[in-house]
Amino acid sequence: MKIVSLSSTGYDLLMKIVSLSSTGYDLPMKIAETFIRDITSYRDSVQAARAKSYHKSTREHWGIPTPSLDAVVKRYARQHAVPTLLPLSQALWQTEIFDLMIAAGRILAQQKIPPSADLWRILTTYLNDVDGWALEDQLYHAAWKCLLQTPALLDEIETWTAHENMWMRRAALIYTLPYTKPGYDPERMLTWMGTYASDPEWFIQKAIGWWLRELGTHNPQRVIQFLNVHWALLKGVARKEATRKLDEQWLQQLSRSLP
Hints:
Elements: H1 8-21, H2 29-40, H3 45-54, H4 66-79, H5 82-94, H6 98-108, H7 117-127, H8 133-137, H9 140-149, H10 153-160, H11 166-174, H12 187-196, H13 202-216, H14 220-230, H15 236-243, H16 248-257
Helix pairs in contact: 1-2, 1-5, 4-6, 5-6, 11-13, 13-14, 13-15, 14-16
């Protein structure tokens, strides 16, 4: 039965989501319909072309402004329960449309969705499809929730550090950023970063710098120790990010200790 209130594109997408729902997702058709109607009203072909080029993406882009996308996601999070939001997120991710995949990740990040084994299973399934930083970073809030509730997940995350997929290796750092905060032991992740130091990938080096920069806000001495050992192997982006927020006294100490 055709839903005349949707554009042909929206209707085709709805049929795709309903098809996905029939394979195991418990997603009411009406909710999928209204979500598509709400989100497609913000499509911008000019912005879509810019975003596709910027992200060097092979996916379809709709150019939906971030504030508009966030507003729709938050409204649905208020209106619907977790048993509806999780399959909605899964169905949106499966469309392979960049903007809807972003929305899928942001649904998982909503405060009303608690950490759980099911949430962890969903986001790690998504990780298999990640091919860029924008999609990967949409998942870190959900990952942080799960990790902080279940620290034993570090064992699984550690296996990612040797993964052939660079985005999996990067996720091992981005998804453990809570361990840069006071009260958490960073040593396990610092060991991983030691093995990453010679990794030529720019995004890995950037992630090392990001992790060290956050740790340095309260433990600059440990950051200096790490840099003293690995400085020669680290690329410029890692060095720059790691030291960007260090006080002058720590920068001087680093300068004196380097060959």
